[in-house]
Design goal:
The protein has helices spanning 2-13, 36-52, 67-74, 88-97, 132-141, 154-165, 179-188, 198-206, 254-268, 271-279, 289-310, and strands spanning 25-29, 56-60, 82-86, 108-123, 144-148, 171-175, 193-197, 211-215, 241-249, 283-284. With 315 residues, the chain is an alpha/beta fold. It folds into two domains: 20-116 and 242-310, 3-Layer(aba) Sandwich (D-Maltodextrin-Binding Protein, domain 2); 118-215, D-Maltodextrin-Binding Protein, domain 2. β5 (144-148), α6 (154-165) and β6 form a beta-alpha-beta unit. α2 (36-52) packs across α9 (254-268) and α4 runs parallel beside α11. The longest helix is centred in the last third of the chain and has 22 residues, at 289-310. It is globular.
């Protein structure tokens, strides 16, 4: 009898998370559909749901360079049913730009880094400049605009760094509500230049809808092998990129975190998914949850300093 009672007590003590997931999982994205974060999330979404045994439902919640989605997620229980595909902006760039309603590191549970990708400088097909220097010459003659996915986004940071590197020509930032609308502004000629995350614009580059100028990376990327780096284009020490990873609110049980991390690794290592990610300009970067947490802290320290040293201000 005592053994039976002990077994019953032990069973009751098992974490509820052991049965997780028992219903669909919501994955928030802090940007409009069509941007790199959205592209990557939708690429892994079906197989991630298969691996976890429940559908993964994507909800786009654009606003405040990703912070709005983070605020919504933090209002949810830490039970693994509301997660977020996050980026460098929320945890490393925004903290240097604005007063956030949360701690960018300690209020979250790092679960799985999916991939990283460089920023790429693109131009409107209605312009003719082919280098940053030629862009400066254009801006010296007429007002010129660069679009971004929002204030505090990696594209905003990249654009401000470029303006300073070129000696502060007359190039004005125009923030949009997401990466896709900011690229549409380039395609239509509403803006002349943009720094986009590479996976979001590979199709437009290949179709000739935008013109690739240079990669904000130390090395060329196999998705666009003919596109030079910013250093090759005449702007040295210009290395700006972003990444996509899955997080939860603080306190998500460790076994749920492990399940998500294992499932993401299996999905990203699927030959078809891996090939698609690389073809679209992503770099595979799998980490344990602890390594991902350390990575987020390092990114925070790096980019907060970059933003403050550059004197970038919210608009």
């Amino acid at each position: 009898m005592l053994r039976f009672i002990a077994a019953a007590v032990a069973a009751l003590a098992l974490p509820v998370a052991a049965a997780w997931p028992e219903k669909p999982i919501k994955l928030l994205i802090g940007y409009a559909p069509g941007g790199s974060t959205d592209v990557v999330a939708r690429l892994i979404q079906p197989k991630l749901g298969d691996k976890l045994g429940q559908p993964v439902i994507i909800e786009n919640k654009p606003g405040a360079a990703g912070d709005f989605a983070a605020e919504l997620m933090l209002q949810s229980p830490a039970d693994g049913y509301t997660l977020m595909m996050t980026t460098v902006a929320v945890h490393a760039i925004n903290p240097g730009l604005m007063k956030q309603k949360f701690d960018p590191i300690n209020d979250f549970t790092p679960m799985a880094l999916v991939c990283s990708y460089p920023m790429i400088m693109i131009a409107s097909p209605q312009t003719s400049f082919k280098t940053p220097t030629e862009l400066k010459a254009l801006a010296d003659k007429q007002p010129t605009f660069y679009s971004s996915s929002g204030v505090g986004s990696p594209g905003h940071l990249s654009g401000e760094l470029l303006v300073k590197a070129l000696g502060n020509p007359n190039i004005t930032h125009v923030p949009y509500k997401g990466g896709a609308p900011s690229v549409m502004a380039i395609m239509s000629g509403e803006a002349q230049v943009n720094f986009a995350t590479l996976p979001a614009v590979v199709p437009q580059i290949r179709a000739g809808k935008v013109r690739a100028i240079a990669l904000a990376s130390k090395e060329r990327n196999p998705a666009v092998p003919d596109v030079p780096t910013m250093a090759e284009a005449g702007v040295p020490d210009f290395d700006v990129g972003t990444w996509s990873g899955i997080i939860g609110p603080k306190g998500v049980p460790a076994d749920i975190v492990r399940k998500v991390n294992d499932a993401v690794a299996e999905v990203v290592n699927d030959p078809v998914i891996r090939k698609r990610l690389i073809e679209e300009g992503a770099e595979i970067r799998l980490m344990s949850p602890a390594e991902f947490g350390q990575f987020m802290r390092a990114e925070n320290q790096r980019w907060v300093k970059v933003v403050r040293d550059a004197g970038i201000q919210p608009q």
